[in-house]
Amino acid sequence: MSDAGRETARGDRFAFGRNWSRFLRVLNDDRVRQAEASLREMLEMNDLSGKSFLDIGSGSGLFSLAARRLGATVRSFDYDPHSVACTEELKRRYFPGDPEWAVEQGSVLDKDYLARLGTWDIVYSWGVLHHTGNMWKAMENAAGMVKPQGLLFIAIYNDEGGRSSRWAQLKQLYNRKPWARPFLLAIGFLFFWGRTFLGDLLALNPLATWKAYISQRGMSPWHDLVDWMGGWPFEVATPEAVFNFCRGRGFTLQRLLTRQGSGNNEYIFLKG
Fold it and tell me: Alpha-carbon distance 199 to 208, whole Å?
């Protein structure tokens, strides 16, 4: 059993890769196109040809695939072997045998492993670093992988103070008490979707917003909900903390998308 598997069995880590395996069952070309569009929009680049793209914590592999389809040379790695398998499956479907896309298992906390990878034009880690158990070390290591004049594209959970602490308690319960998971998922659905679902129902268009969720990076609302409720380890940071951390390491903020309440704040930093 892998280290990730042992941690999951103990209730110390969510089974991220198993959730992404289920997501691949609903992945289609429309979702892939939406992922590509979101990557182009945030990076403000229509073409990544000639760029190298490091995907730290590739998860389902969707954004590694999007970067490769946009022309980048891609390296994907994840700590969870099931996530690695998901990324390998997407490579098999879309780019079988492609030497410009490497997929492997590795940890952003492993400095010896990272030293073998070199530096990259674009280092991408969306919603991953806060699930490592040591977010600031993970961010330090990710920042060190960026070439001069390269980009660091990260998404980190927003710090909501006491509310974030309460979410952390629910996430621990989700992982340590499997019997509680259906109840916790119901709580999460009502919190995030209850008002929207009721509004769509009153407008005689039930599930309209749920079905339209694909336009948000090509993702699935159900699998994102499971990921949110189960996502452990779990850390958060304010935009100011992330900005100051990266500025102190020679980065300049290029783009910022903040979220009110729960969710990921997205950052793109340029390395000077």
Answer: 10
DSSP calls for 49-98: TT-EEEEES-TTSHHHHHHHHTT-EEEEEESSHHHHHHHHHHHHHHSTT-
Nearest CA to 201 out of 210, 212, 213 is that of 210
- In whole angstroms, give the CA distance from residue 53 to residue 43: 12
The owner of tokens 């969870």 is 80
| DSSP-derived secondary structure for 170-191 | HHHHHHH-GGGHHHHHHHHHHH
Q: Would you mind telling me the total number of residues written for the chain in this entry? A: 272
What would the two tokens of residue 67 be?
Answer: 């970067």
Average pLDDT across each block of 10 residues of the chain; the chain has 272 residues. List them in order: 88 94 93 95 96 98 98 98 97 98 98 97 98 98 98 97 95 96 95 88 86 80 92 97 98 93 93 94
Output the six-digit token pair for 132.
């490592």
pLDDT at position 202 is: 87
pLDDT of residue 257: 95
DSSP code of residue 13: S
pTM of the model: 0.94
C-alpha 67 chain-centroid distance: 14
DSSP of 115-177: HTT--EEEEEEES-GGGSS-HHHHHHHHHTTEEEEEEEEEEEEB--THHHHHHHHHHHHHHH-
Q: Which domains does the chain have, with CATH numbers?
A: 3-159+235-271 (3.40.50.150), 162-230 (no CATH)
The whole-number pLDDT of residue 194 equals 87
